[in-house]
Every structure is written in C-alpha cells, then in structure tokens.
Amino acid sequence: MKKAAVICLLITGNILSCTGLCAQGKLDSLQHLHEVGISARRQVEIIAPQQLDGKELERLNSHSVADAIRYFSGVQLKDYGGIGGLKTVNIRGMGTNHTGVFYDGIQLGNAQNGQIDLGKFSLDNMEEIALYNGQKSEILQPARDYGTSGSVYLKSRRPKFTEDEKYHLQATMKCGSFGLANPSILWEQKITRRTSSLFNAEYTYATGKYKFRYRRTQPDGSVAYDTTATRENGDIKALRLEGGFFGTSERGEWNAKLYYYDSERGIPGPILNNVWRHGERQWDRDFFAQGHYRSNFGKRYRLLINGKYAYDYTEYLRDDYRELYIHNHYRQHECYLSAAQQITLFSWWDVSLSTDFQWNTLNADLRDFPFPTRYTEMAAIATTMQWERVQIQGSLLGTFIQESVRNKQKASAASPNKNELSPAAFVSFRPLEHHDLQLRAFCKKSFRMPTFNDLYYTDIGNKYLKPEYTVQYDGGFLFRKNRTHGAFRHFELQGDGYYNVVTNKIVAYPTGQQFRWTMLNLGRVEIRGCDLAAQAGVLWGKVGLNVRVCYTFQRAQDCTDPADRYYKDQIPYIPRHSGSALLSAEWKGWNFNYSFIYTGERYSSSENSRLTRLQPWYTSDFSANYSFSVKKVKCRATGEVNNLFNQHYDVVANYPMPGINFKVILRIEI
Amino acid sequence: MKRILFPLLLLCLSAVTSCRHEELILYSDTYETTTPQYTSVAGFYLLNEGNMGTNSSTLDYFDATTGEYHKNIYAETNPTVIKELGDVGNDLQIYGSRLYAVINCSHKVEVMRAADASYIGKIDLPNCRYIRFHEGYAYVSSYVAPVRIDPHAPKGCVFKIDTATLQVVDTVTVGYQPEEMEIRFGKLYVANSGGYRVPDYDNTVSVIDLATFREIKKIEVAINLHRLKGDRYGYLYVSSRGDYYDTHSKLYVIDARTDRLVDSLDIAVSNMCIDGDSAYVYSTEWNWTTAQNTVTYGIIDLKERRIVNRSFITDGTDAEIKIPYGIAVNPITKEIYVTDAKNYVVSGTLYCFSPEGKRLWKVPAGNIPAHFAFKGEYRIEHTYTN
Q1: Which of A163, A599, B68, B308 has most Cβ atoms within 10 angstroms of its Cβ?
Q2: Residues A374, A364: contact at Cβ < 8 Å?
C-alpha cells in the first residue's frame, strides 16, 4: 500500500522528486528508491518498453549495445561480423532508417545515411537500454521523440552517491579472442551535495582476426568443400572519452555532457570466390556536446530544454590496386535545440507542447557534390489522460523541412520543402482490480526523410524523393505479478500483435546504364507480426534464478507490384521466427549466465529462392562471474565463452561470423 | 505460475523447430523450352553476372538437342570449387574445346571444358573485363596494368595468355579502364572507357600489333567507349556510353584496314550483337521526368550502314522486358536471345524470339543474365581477308 501511495504521488506529475530524494538517501534506501523509481515510471508508461538495465546488462556476454539489443523481441540486428563490423537495428521490419536511437535523451543523428552503428556504443558505461514501439509515452519530451516509428533509448551511467561517499573509481580490463584488449576507467566525483561529475574513458584494440568456415556437402552426404580461413582486415582501434556534470535541485535536474569517439578500422568486406581479403579502411571522429535541463515551476508547469551540437567526421579509403581507388572525407554538423513544456490541467489530464529546431549539413569531397544543408522545425502537441484503469495519450507532430545546396551544378538543386504531420494515439486499460493486467493498443503514422545520400549522392541521388511513410497498428497485453514470499517472486508476460505498412519505400532502382542506380519511392511492405516476452524471477533459498524469454514472428512482405516474381515474398534479412532466452543464477558471490539467440531462415534478396536462402543460426553464450571484496575494494572477475557450440554462420550473406570465442573481464571498484 | 511458464517455454521452443542442417551445394534446375533442334549449334552457355558483392555469378546451359534449359550448373558440375563461380561474371567465350569465363570481381578467368563446364584451371588477373582469342593465345582486358605510374588512376592493360599453359606471357598497357576487344588483320582493338576517371573519360580505341604486342596507335573516337564488335567486312563498331547527362550514347565505325574513324550512327547503344549483315542493338536511357527507363531496339544493316528496323521484337513482349541486358543471335537458326535483368537484384529471364520477332519461349535465368557462348561445330564466315 505504501508503494501504491508513492506511485500515486509520482503519477500526479513529479518523477523528479525521486532523483532528488536519491541524492539524500542512504545506500539501502537508494537501492529501494531505484526500484520504486522504475516501477513508478512503468506505471506512467502507457506502453511499457522492453528494457535491460543495470545488473541484467552486466550479465550479458555483450560487447556493444548492438549485442544487447538482440535480446529484445521485434528487433533484427544486421551484423557484418567482428568487433569493428557495422551493426544496425531494424524494429518490426520497417527498416533501419525508421529506428531512432537516443543517447541520454537526445537522438543520435546521421543525416548522411540515416544509419546508427550500434557497434560503436559500448556497454561499459550503459545503465539502461530501452526499446519503445511507436514512441515513449511520456509527454514531456522533445518533438523529435515523437518522430520515429520505433526507438532505442540508451541511458549512460550517471553518478549516484550515498551521504558519506565522495567519489567512485572503477577500472575494467577486458581481454579475449580477436586480439581484444579493452581497458576502461570511470571516475565519478561528488562536487557539492547536489552536483557531481563523471569522466569515462575506454580504449578498444582488436586485431579482429578470427577463423571462419564454409562447408558444403553433396546430396549423398559427402563433402563438396570444407574450408577454414582467417577473417582479415577487421582490426579496430577506438578511443571513447565521455565527461559530464550532473545536478539536481529541489525542482528539477540538469546535465551537460561531452562525448568524443575516435576510431580507425578495417572494413573486412564480403568473402567471395578467389577474394579472401579487402583493403578498405575507415576513420571516424565523432564529437558531441549536449545539455539537458528539466524543472518544475509550481505544481502544474514543467519545462524541459535540450540542446546539442554534433560533428561527425568519416574518412573512407579504398586502396586496393585491383579496384577503383576511393579516398573520401565526409563531415557532418548538427545543431539541435528543443524546448518542451507540460501543463497539468487536472490531476488526470496533462497537455504538452514541444518545439524543436535542427540544422544539418554534409560536406564531402565527392565530384559535383552539392553540399546540402537541412533545416528542420518540429512542433508537437501531446496530451495524456490517466484514470484509475485507463490511460490515453495522443500526439500530433508537425515537421517542416527546408533544404538548400551550395553547389548548383548539373542535377543538384535542392530538394523541395516538405511538411509532414505524424499523428499517434495510445491507450491502455487495466480490466482487473487486483491483478496487474494491462491491455494496450496504439496506432501511429510516421515517416523518415530521405537521407542526404538518397537525395544528393553524385549520379545516384534523386532530389525529388518523397519521405517514406509507416503506419503502425498494435494491440497487446502486459501481465505482471510480484510476490514477497514463496519461490516465484516475479513474473511478467508481454505480448503484442501488429500490422505495419511501409509505403513510398525508398529503393535503389537501376537506370539501365551499367552500374547506374537511382533512388525511387517505389516499395510497399506489409508487416504482420507478433512479439512475446516473458520474465520470471525465482528465489530458492540462497539461489536466485532469472529467466527471460522472447519470441518474434514477422511476416514482412514485399507488396510493391503484383507483376514482380517476388511479390509477397519475405523482405531480405527478416526471419519469420526469431527468439532469445536468458537464464541467470545467483548464489552468494557467484553468478552464472546462459544466453541463447535464435534467428530463423532468412533470404538475402527480395526474391525468396533456395539460391538466396540463408540457414537459421543459433548461438549459446555462457559466462560466470565472481564478486569479492579486498578490504574496501570491490572486485569482480568474469569469464565468458561465446558461441559455445562453435556454429559457423552468416548474419549477412558472405560476411562470416566468428565461431567459439572467449573473454576475461576484471573490474575493480573503489 | 509454473502452469503458465512451462507451456510458454514449450511454445517458444517449438517455434525453434527449424534447425540448421548440412548446407548442400546449389544444384541445377531444368526447364523444358522447345522442341529439339539438330543444327551445328549444339546449344549455348549463359553467364549470369550476379550483383556485385554477392558472389552470385552463375552459369546456365541451353541444350538445343533436347530443348532443355539447365539453370545454375556450375556448382553441381564443380562441387569442390570453394565459393562457386564468383562475383560478377563479365564475359564468356568458347575457344577450341574450352570455355572461358571472365569473373570480374573475383579477379580471375575460369577455364572449363566446353563439353560440360567442368573445371580445368583459373588464371588470376586483377579486375579483368573481356576475353578474345587468336592463334593459341587469349587476350584479356583489365582495368589495372601491373605497372602503375599513377597509383590513384591506373591505366588498363591487355594480358596475353598462352592457352596451353594458362600462364600470362605478355602485357601491354592501353588506355583507361579498357572494355571490349576485337581482333582484325593481326591487330587487337580495345575500347577504352575511363569509367573510373569521371568526368575525364577516356575517348580512344587502342590498336595493338599482335606480332610485337605493342600499342601502335590510339584512335580518338568519343568518351566512355564500351562495346566493340567487328563485322565481316573489316569494319569495327564502337559504342560510346556518353556521360549520362548531356552527351548521349552513340555508335562509331572504324575501318580496321586504315585504323581510321570513318563513320558514326546516331543511335544509342547499350549492347549489340552482330550476325551476318545485321547488328542487333538495344539501348536503355533513363528519363528523369517520367522516372522510367526508355528502351529502344533496332537492327542496323551493316552493308548499307543504316538503321533498318526500330524493333526486332514484334509481338509486344518488349513491354514485359524491364531492363534488356544480354543479347545474342543463333548463327544458324537466327533466333534472337534477349535477357531481362529486371532490377539487378532478383533473378532475370531469358527470352527466345524467332527471326521474325515472335516470342518462342522464355525461362527464368540467374541474377543479371548477360553473356552467351554458342557451342558447336558452326563457323562464322568473313568476307575480308586477313
């Protein structure tokens, strides 16, 4: 009942007090409040996200955010293999470009190609990863948050201190297969009672070499060929520096962050007949500075301000004498400012207005490059109504885009202005008084802008491209049960069925001349799917058991043109069946984890035939860790075995994945 | 709670019923096309290019004596070749008893028995494009010469290969990114495109004396040259692709006796095939206002050197063909073969037309069906004397 009272208090509008309280609490209460914070926020969510946080993330045998995301249902990861390989995420079959990735509350942009490489984001400092279908159902959020079809929110670690703590120091060293050496340090300092700072540095070095195997057999079972080779040119050197200041006040909170990422990597390329190595290399330098301020004014008005400047530099070099020499440099700038305000009209009714402005440019040393600039203004109005059993959210986002180009040669004039409306409606209903069962539904119309590459890439880009639209319909349920006694302590079951339509899909279309393509709004994809996720926590004496199981079914069909041979075929790289399981057991200082990932058969091309069929794959990972203390120093040692059964598979055709591999992690904390 | 959890786990596990199994080599499909023909053309091989980076170049065989079309025969015939035929098949020729396939992005020429396409050997050549033969030697054009003066804009070359040993015996540097070749009067002609040097395209045809294997002349023609085919009168027809903007595709004529540019025809050419006195051509040009490809077909009378027919497909099948790609004419029956590459990422179609332009049959082919090599005892007669 006490908990319920806290929850009610929080629902009426003040989540912030939680963070405020945290700073004052003791260690025990901090733990407690943390839990309350989460469950309270879940109450506010009309559609609960799938999330992995704190301990769960630590337990995963994952290197990057990309690896962790595979444990969510409804998500497909495109992985080109290795530590440095490109990893992009596709939510519910709508395409990578419809997925928004938010880092500490602000979207990561890539106006050039719209893809965020999640392999670049380390789990080392990640506190929480959450996946939202549709949108986050908070309404005090930037307009941009209403603009994606599905979103991944990455929340990095922020300092939390008990009364008598002054600082935290943490050092981690990971070593393992692929010649991996991955040290990191974290320093959190309490400055005043309400302000603190954080500094985090991580260096990743890997040769990226691993054995892969291709094997084919004859129908009679005899071996046709069986070859094992080493993946070359997959090395990476990357440095990540992150720092920030965090503060809370009676009324709100703020933070300011700097992020820098500098890497050099080889691009291993596809394995082809007679070609076992490629020479492409890529350098990335990403920098961003972002600030966040949130405050309450009185009991009814809340304000949220976000700002960001980002600079991304990419250098691409192909210096293979056998192929066309390419050496290009791309520079992107982004400025972003957002203000969101929320007014509580009644205890059950909130309204908000968010206004964003964003500026993007891309410079590239490509021939006849037009140097585009994009101005985006966004305004969103949203409302939530919350009663005992029913919660409703509605939002309407207007997006207004203007573009200009500096170089007006040849076909490279600016793309026409675009004005788009994206409405969304969410509802959740709790039919039972004594059970935590929620029924939920949403529908949302959204779009993605053609990227700068789609519009302006020399000879390929098409400035007349229209946005690509998605319409989503979703219905689902959530059932939760928590108990304070007995073996079964926690149980949660979520399920959703959905129907998505992607129209005006931007596809590459051949212009007849050899190797010449252009981008057209040609495609239509219909996706019918269901996601199921279950979690359970069991306590047997001193043994704690956690189980998490996900299953995804997706029928994603190309419905572009009935005259096509591949009409109604499954779109490339989307399996019909996929799933994952996570099992962990805790006993005293020991922790054992087993994870399993299954991806069913897929096709590498829009035409589904046995020539383009890719085998299902499934990997088992196992890890064990032991936590202990030496005086005041907390230590944790972890051993991991990934791909335990040494399965050789391709996620993307001709990009072989590593077989069995190992990792050792040592972490000390003061 | 157990009652809910375990059925759920079972449900999830049952979804995971589709497991991995041993990956089989890709075996062929056979399609019935037409009634058997007994001519000196026993059939033809068709090389499917495969989209770049997908390692999906495949080989098909049409057996005229049975009327059967065998799709994707390479892996089945040569199961031990690792990763099959390779990436981007760019040319296919039969010389003597052997079948040669130039696999561009696998940087090799695959040598097979013409009888059954079984593997004999391979010649590693960087970025190789086309192959021609003369007196026991194979000549392969390549985008990169072994000697690189400017490493960032390498000139192309022609490799000379002894077909008995499959060894490179000589090399000659030509222009930038050389494409098709033809041999006339002891000379090798190479169309230089300069496709890597956009917008500074090459505009020459290199003339190589086969006795000394040295470049003896460069004939200036037009930018971005691609196709080069000789007729039976000693003339060469060279296509310019234009720059895809203001300069359009055009066809030029070179007299191989004098090595001079003698004529030009105002016709766009994407690909062509010469048979007797006729050149069968088609072109695809992109139209920005309709956002569609405009496809035109035509026949050029080589004797008169004029366009005599704007369509060799007469039954309306051309409306079905999205992107015509490969073209060939049966030297005996004069049937016309045209392939449709569709959108380059799915499998294409092979069409067979009667000499009158009526569709006789069609079969599904591989990804980007493109290059033909006729098998048999037939001979092509030339009226010029070497």
Answers
A1: A599
A2: no
pTM: 0.90
Please state whether A251 falls in left (phi above 0), alpha (psi between -120 and 50) or beta: alpha
B115 touches chain A (CB under 8 A): no
Q: Which residue has the higher pLDDT, A5 or B301?
A: B301
Token pair recorded at residue A139: 């309404």
- Number of Cβ atoms within 10 Å of the Cβ of A227: 13
Residue A37 has pLDDT above 60, yes or no: no
Q: Binning pLDDT at 50, 70 and 90, where does residue A9 land?
A: very low
Helix A27-44 vs helix A2-11: crossing angle, to nearest 10: 60
- pLDDT of A27: 32
Residue pLDDT, tens place only, B51-103: 998 999 999 999 999 999 999 999 999 999 999 999 999 999 999 999 999 99
A280 at interface of B, judged by CB pairs closer than 8 A? no
CA distances from B173 to B158, B185, B203 (A): 7, 20, 16
Looking at CA atoms only, how far is residue B382 from chain A in angstroms?
31
- The candidate with the shortest Cα–Cα distance to A135, out of A540, A542, A425, is A425
Q: Torsion angle, CA of A580/A490/A129/A127, rounded to 10 degrees?
A: -130
CB A147 within 8 A of CB A446: yes
Indicate whether A3 pLDDT > 70: no
Q: Is the pLDDT of residue A38 over 60?
A: no
Which 387-446 residues of chain A touch chain B by CB within 8 A?
410-411
pLDDT of residue B4: 52
In chain B, residues 195-224 whose CB comes closer than 8 Å to chain A: 196, 198-199
Distance CA A49, CA A131 (A): 5
Query: Which residue of chain A is at minimal alpha-carbon distance from B176?
Result: A324
Q: Chain-centre distance of CA A357, in angstroms?
A: 23
pLDDT above 90 for B350 = yes
User: CB under 8 Å to A574, separation ≥6 — which residues?
Assistant: A76, A90, A93, A554, A556, A602
Strands (E), A80-166: 87-91, 99-103, 106-107, 126-133, 150-156
Phi, psi of A3 (to 5 degrees): -60, -45
pLDDT tens figures, A100-134? 999 999 999 889 888 899 988 988 889 999 999 99
Q: Indicate yes or no: CB of A274 within 8 angstroms of CB of B86.
A: yes
Q: What pLDDT digit, counting tens, does each position of A436-464 carry?
A: 999 999 999 999 999 998 898 877 888 88
DSSP string, A482-533: E-SSSSEEEEEEEEEEEEEEEEEEEEEEE-SSTT-EEEEEEEEEEEEEEEEE
Helix (H, G, I), strand (E, B) or coil at B168: strand
Alpha carbons A206 and A122: distance in angstroms, whole number: 14
DSSP bridge partners of A595: A582, A621
* Contacts (Cβ under 8 Å, ≥6 apart) of A116: A88, A89, A99, A101, A108, A110
Tell me if chain B has a CB within 8 Å of the CB of A322.
yes
What is d(CA A9, CA B208) in angstroms, rounded to the nearest whole number?
A: 89
A654 touches chain B (CB under 8 A): yes
Written as six digits, the tokens of A393 are 């959210």
Reported as type and span, the H/E element at residue A40 is: helix A27-44
- pLDDT higher at B1 or B135: B135
A22/A38 Cα distance (integer angstroms): 13
Write the CA distances from B246 to B108, B240, B241, B243, integer angstroms.
Answer: 35, 13, 11, 7
Round the average pLDDT of chain A to a whole number and report it: 88
Provide the 3-class DSSP secondary structure of residue A27.
Answer: helix
- Indicate yes or no: CB of A532 within 8 angstroms of CB of B12: yes
> Which pLDDT score is estimated for A409?
62
pLDDT given at position A17: 32
A28 SS3 class = helix
